[in-house]
Amino acid sequence: MIPAQQKQIFRAKLKYSRGKLSSRQVTELSEAVQQKLIDTIDWDSLNSLHIYQAIAKNNEMKTDKIISFAESHGKKIYFPNINKMPRNERFDVVIVPTVGFDRQGRRLGYGGGFYDRFLANNRCGRIIGLAYSQSEVSSITAESHDQKLHSVITENEVIDF
Fold first, then answer.
1. Which of 43, 50, 88, 157 is positioned for an S-S bond with 94, CB 3.0–4.6 A?
2. Domain count for the chain
3. In the sheet that 158-160 helps form, which strands lie side by side, from edge to edge?
4. Lowest mean pLDDT: which of 14-18, 83-87, 102-106, 118-122?
5. Helix axes 23-40, 64-72, angle to 10 degrees
6. Which domain holds residue 117?
7. Which CATH number goes with the domain that contains 90?
């Protein structure tokens, strides 16, 4: 279990491990995850998708194919803006970056609380974390402000909570 006071240490370790992936590995793993997400979502019933754009220098899981797929199917796509957070908006699916996760739907993000505030202040249908399988931890201590995921998608599996 990752106690709340040790989240920063685990976050740094997970980011370091992710940082060691080559650009080829990031691309290959991201393609597998993106295809799983595309195959998992009921696109006919989805109107709005809130999704992050990967930061390459952080070796984040890429989202470019998901964005292209959603655009080609006429879906409304929204991107995070840390300077202007929406309130009381409705999003059918929200895709969040994930530094770490556990099998109870708890997510370890970057530590700034942006997504926890965003998820708490909006009506979000399905919340999906994209993660490398190596980012799984045994258990993360939830704090009162932490928002749970509905699913995590890794290169190996789709995990629903």
1. 50
2. 1
3. 76-78, 48-51, 90-97, 123-130, 151-153, 158-160
4. 83-87
5. 30
6. 4-160
7. 3.40.50.10420
